[in-house]
Amino acid sequence: MAELGPYLKKHTEALVKDVGIEAACELAGKSKATLGRYYSDAEEHQDRFMPIDAVASLEAAARYPHVTSALAELRGITLSYDDRGPNSPEGGVNSDVIALSQRFAMLMTEYGQSIEDGVITVNEAKRLLRETLALQHVLMDMKLHLEDEAT
Prior knowledge:
Layout: H1 5-19, H2 21-28, H3 32-39, H4 52-61, H5 66-74, H6 92-115, H7 122-150
Helix pairs in contact: 1-2, 1-3, 1-4, 1-5, 6-7
């Protein structure tokens, strides 16, 4: 835990600053001093970490889930943000097939543009990843619709 401590404290500080110290105090139900101890790198505070319920409250108000993301990174897990909302029961499999073919075409277009010069840059890789994730979401919707029709 000793080597993980500073990493988690850095992300805890980023979370508090993202929300704002006053708002963080109110949301977490903690004082400024207590919140400061959670991300302090002072030796006497090295074993103090923010409780998970406080992290959840702050991340709900933050623009980014700093601590959750840090924990995921430590395990080699990738998080993705999906603002589409829950799966829609409308449309069914036929709509999914159309969406699937459109997303695949968009992925192939991105790939074609990315590989044109023989090198896929970091930004091009990020765009390909976004398209791949969008394709994955369409496949998940399709799977759920097929499961509904099978029962």
